[in-house]
Amino acid sequence: MFDRSTGGALTPLSVVIDQVLGPVRALIEGRPTLMFGTNSYLGLNFEESCVEAATEALRRFGAGSTASRVASGNQKLHVDLEKAVAALYGRSDAIVFSTGFMANLGAIGGLVREGDAIALDAHCHASIFDACRLSGAKVATFRHNDAADLQRVMAASGVAPARTLVVTEGVYSVLGDVADLPAIVAVTRGSGAVLLVDEAHSLGLYGAHARGVAEAQGVEDDVDVIVGTFSKSVGVVGGYCVTSDRAFRTLRFAARPYLYTASLPPPVVAAAHRAIDLIRDDASRRDKAWRNARAFHAGLVALGLPPSAPPGPVGAVRMPGIKPGLDMWRALLTAGVYVNMLIPPATPNGEVVLRYSVSAAHEPEDIETALAVIGRSARAVGIPLREPAPAGA
Ligand code: PMP
């Protein structure tokens, strides 16, 4: 029942952050640590104006809402945040949930009925899998990022496309690879199927208005529902879904994780709103996050540890097994660099990866320091290094 196999050794589940010193800095076991495993892609959890907005809301409206949206937890702050999210996406409706996990439970559970079908990408997040299981629909996965396989799954389901929900992500959270939405849309467009894309890791980073991968790939009009979270680039907690489809106006009243849980606390809502405004108005953090992401990716390639996807805010380096992965992860942590170690079932294909995230809050020196520590640690624990490809190859 309990896993005691680690015998008290340092594992990803046992790390305690003693003090958070900023978006990418913390004290862990007394050591100043550079965080390359947070989702604070834009550093907005410590952005002065977000903290001020939260502080003011805390004083004016209190620490918690103490009720769900349909009870007494529907405050003007929540409604205004929904308007800001809908406006950011240029869509008519937005619903705010208390977490991104709940946004998937609520949106997927509210959209489908028993007898409907769901086709989801095999690499989707656990919240999407759980939402599909709970929905009572007929659920089938299609091969990761494989539109032809989506077509096969839809044809084999025995359910009309018009009663089928297709679910993908914009950026996949484990390996950091990006969905091929135009290919997915080529299958769903005109079929009557509803397409939902989770942009949890792409809000604030992809697309001319920072709305995510659907915007960056020019297919927003073919995506019926977008789900996202406030816990990453927005820097707080909470989730949302947006749509312009009039048929989904009732979603709010069908989504149990909206109806039956307390709404977000006022300080969180105020900070999220300010962060959404900054994402809309100020591209400087996004540009810096991308510069850092490219520099970190290039550095890893040069070290012989090429990430498994092109540069992006989140990425992963494959490890040759659990033991070497854990040795490498421990070596990094004890040298003051924090990354995430992920093992199955959190990873696809039974892989062990060290996942990292890069933030606008990193400085070029942070990237250099982390890369130097990664190179030293890999050599110390014997992680095989690949020869960098010759220039021009
Ligand atoms: N969707 C995806 C793709 C995610 O990666 C995550 C969190 N890692 C979630 C949803 C859940 O978001 P939250 O942590 O805000 O509940």
From TrEMBL:
Source organism, top-level taxon: Bacteria
Keyword Transit peptide: no
Domain Aminotransferase class I/classII large: residue ranges: 34-374
InterPro entries: Aminotrans_II_pyridoxalP_BS, Aminotransferase_I/II_large, AON_synthase_class-II, PyrdxlP-dep_Trfase, PyrdxlP-dep_Trfase_major, PyrdxlP-dep_Trfase_small
GO molecular function terms attached to this record: 8-amino-7-oxononanoate synthase activity
Enzyme class: transferase
Cofactor dependency: pyridoxal 5'-phosphate
E.C. number: 2.3.1.47
Keyword Zinc: no
A Pfam family assignment: Aminotran_1_2
Keywords: Acyltransferase, Pyridoxal phosphate, Transferase
Membership in a protein family: Belongs to the class-II pyridoxal-phosphate-dependent aminotransferase family.
Protein name as catalogued: 8-amino-7-oxononanoate synthase
Organism: Labrys wisconsinensis
